[in-house]
Amino acid sequence: MANHFERYAEVAEILIRHGFGSIAPLLGLGQLHLGPMPLRAGTRATPDRLVVALEELGPTFIKLGQLLSTRPDILPRQYTTALARLQDDAPPVATDHVRTILEQELGASPDVVFNTFDDVPLASASIGQAHAATLHDGTSVVVKVRRPGVVAQVQEDLEILQNLAHQASRNWAALADYNVEAVVSTFAETLRAELDYLVEGRNAERFARNFAHDTGIHIPKIYWSTTTSRVLTMERIYGQRIDDKEVTSLPLADRDRLATTAARAAAKMIFEDGFFHADPHPGNLFVESTGRIGLIDFGMVGELDEQLRKRLGKLLLDFSRNDPDRISRALLGLAINRTATDRQRLRQDVAPFMQQYQGRSLGEIRIAPLITEILTILRTHHIQLPSGIAMLTKMVIMTEGMGVGLNPDFNLGEVLKPYAGRLALEQFSPQKLPGLLKQLGLDAADFGADMPERLERMLQQLDDGVEVHLRAEELAPLVARAELIGNRLVAGLILAAFIRGIGELTAADRRHLQNWQNTLLATGVGALGAMGGYLAWTSRPGLRSRRQ
């Protein structure tokens, strides 16, 4: 704390002044000898006071508040709602400072580098500000310039936040089931990436590749010759904000088309690309004169691996089945914390929640309220989601809100359903089946080889006259292992039912079909052999006699 004493003192003073003095010791701030503190004078800790406190603390804490506004699995709804109002606006940087940065980064005055450069910023935020300019070939561009001193300020605050998170995880019992250190660590990684405009430029190019064949979405081009970690030059998007009156007063058919285009882009990012824009607020979406949607600001992005995307797709489809057990298992499958969860209580909480969706398909369900209720249940049971899922919930809620703003009858679930369905069925494609069947065989063989050794050790202990106390948590890994292989074997039977149909689809290529059948045969024999060996071992006379 000695390296940042003044900043720690400032954090403590602001928290106390706004009614959050009771948490200062829990954050480790009670160890500081700060001198006399202003009394709260009746100030009570409220969500609105927290917003004001974070705004006073500056850009790093504002960004943290914006992140926490997407985490109903951690904070109560009244806090997430208040934090969503946090604004990232900041006073403009002086013109002389901007020109100095451009000259340092680009090697010449902006009047030389660009054909024209407007000193009056288009927008100013806590990390940087944007200026209009034109290249020497007449191309209109936007030049983003990082604020001077912001990296050092953010780095200091991130170190402080990581220390506070460590203290809170040790001192604050209410946070015992939440990995707050991991939350802050992920936040720090995301914010540091936002500070580097080279990262944002690469993100933009990745989106451009993903939407290269989508005529409804426009991703601006990055001009690398005038881009550095502190300066980003990109093609200028002309149009109206998607929530401007000029757009919301368009005919309903046009507004519905825009909502559907934006929602399909979001669904593609989630279920096909696994790479999504994490901050699609209306200020980042522009409707061009052609009706195309221009997307900007690629500093905050999220990623989902293939396994996570499959689980999400399955979870969405499972809601139409009205099965609390299935949904409870799916939610636990997404969790990253290892807290003991009362599954029966979780199911009891999920059941009435599911009743309101009984008999309704995904296309008939409003997604934002659904997500909010799920996250509330997760928070009640101290179940924490991966950071990527947390960012995704914000993106989905924003997307549906934008769609409803354009068309009150817009339903995001109807757009997501085919994408989720395709993703869920993708694992049964001819290309994926050999790998899945091979994994079934490996899991079965591993299970068959591992179980005898575990049981043999237990029986030896019994023969030695050792008193064995079996606790549920000790058996949990074994039970989970058995459950896993059981699930996979059942999945194998289901997959086998697809063989004939897939064989007909691929019959035109006999060589590939034969290879696929050989893979199936080998893995099937391996699995049956492993299980047969296990059954033979368990039927030995010696084993039976010792069981009696």
Describe the structure using short key phrases.
11 strands, alpha+beta, disordered C terminus, four-stranded mixed β-sheet, 548 residues
General description of the model:
By secondary structure, this protein is of the alpha+beta class. It has 22 helices and eleven strands. The strands form three sheets. Strands 1, 2, 3, 4 and 6 form a five-stranded antiparallel beta sheet that branches. A hairpin with a 5-residue loop joins strand 3 and strand 4. Helix 2 runs parallel beside helix 4, helix 12 packs antiparallel against helix 13 and helix 18 packs parallel to helix 21. It is globular and about 80 Å long. The N and C termini lie far apart (64 Å).
Residue stretches low in confidence (pLDDT < 50, at least 5 long) are 466-483, 488-514, 519-523, 525-531, 533-540, 542-548
Shape: globular
Task: Tell me what portion of residues adopts beta-strand conformation.
Answer: 5-15%
Q: Got a strand count?
A: 11
Oligomer: single chain
- Helical residues, percent: 55-70%
Largest sheet: 5 strands, antiparallel
What count of helical segments does DSSP give?
22
